[in-house]
Amino acid sequence: MATPTMEKTAAKTDVSPYITVTFRVRRFNPELSDEAQWQDFQIEIDPKERVLDGLHKIKWDVDGSLTFRRSCAHGICGSDAMRINGKNRLACKTLIKDINPEKPITVEPIKGMTVLKDLVVDMEPFFQAYRDVMPFLITSGNEPTRERLQSAEDRERFDDTTKCILCAACTSSCPVFWNDGQYFGPAAIVNAHRFIFDSRDEAAEQRLEILNDKDGVWRCRTTFNCTDACPRGIEVTKAIAEVKRALITRRY
Amino acid sequence: MSADLSKTAVGPVEGVSLYDVDNPAPLIDPPRKRTKRSPKSARGNFELAAWLFMRLSGVVLVVLVIGHLLIQLVLDGGVSKIGFAFVAGRWASPFWQVWDLLMLWLAMLHGANGLRTVINDYAERPSTRLWLKGLLYTATVFTILLGTLVIFTFDPNIR
Fold this sequence. Notes:
The structure holds 2 protein chains of 2 kinds.
Chain A: H1 10-13, E1 19-27, E2 37-45, H2 51-62, E3 81-84, E4 87-90, E5 105-108, E6 115-117, E7 120-121, H3 124-132, H4 152-157, H5 175-179, H6 186-196, H7 204-211, H8 225-229, H9 236-251
Parallel strand pairs in A: 1-5
Antiparallel strand pairs in A: 1-2, 3-4, 3-5, 6-7
Helix pairs in contact in A: 3-6, 6-7, 6-9
Chain B: H1 46-74, H2 84-91, H3 94-122, H4 126-153
Pfam families (chain B): Sdh_cyt (PF01127)
Keywords (chain B): Heme, Iron, Membrane, Metal-binding, Transmembrane, Transmembrane helix
Transmembrane segments (chain B): 48-75, 95-115, 135-154
């Protein structure tokens, strides 16, 4: 803070950037009660900080029992997807100033999955659907002695869906998934799309057959919740539509 | 803590939670969790065909229904002209018979398929789904058969 330029605005720097923000967190602890309840925390925070910083302040300084997942804290690992002010977002990519700190900021676990404690949910159904679409390169014949080459255009075809970080923000924003846990969910379809349209992969047919399931792509109701929720800006609904189109053009 | 503490006949000691570390509350499973009993997969092209049918029949129905409404309610004197004689005159022509038959079948199947997806999405218990779908399919088949019968056996000289 001791940079020379700051002296001119010395009066300004005296003003603390900190404001008081209320965090309204959905707490659930099966060792205390079978019901979740809201708990308010008042903390001092710089509005340029993120929701994750607020949760850290609560956990480190106020209530150490607050439980949530986070790993890299920079929007890459996809651990800290949660429902902030009613929308699925990554806590580490949501700035306090962007979500109206005047009002209490509600923080809930993502919907449609079993809450284990506070903001931690059981991700197993999500990863089960992910595993079901075989998210790995499948090829036949001899392995090449060097890289599998691909043109820039072929790479571009599925570029959007390679960005997925498996945070489950899309799947847990999908109303069909809330009502029916059997549905594969947007994230699994996005990761199937990533291989279906990869020119090096040879199992597109198998993956399409898996997604042709009763609970596959045809359960998508095109509500665009997933596209709105994706913290990576993947056009999820478009990817699902492309899989649908591939299935139709394959059949007829 | 727990709202149903007061409901139990012999309540636990006041201030003591029902649940503790060794005895945690049961977790609420997500709706229709995948279990051993849920079918492995239900593949086949039925859902694909149903999805495609919804799109195609929707496009055709826009033409059929808007045309139908215009003829019945707007053009040539509006709704006041409709009577037994008007319907009899229209159904004398095979063109209008085909029009109405097509509209009946497409609208009924389109609506029934839409309701089927709604039931699939929202009805949670298997027995509820079974009953709702049974009712839906019965009503659909009945309406389609009755309508088709009327269109083909319509007698303008009926007494």
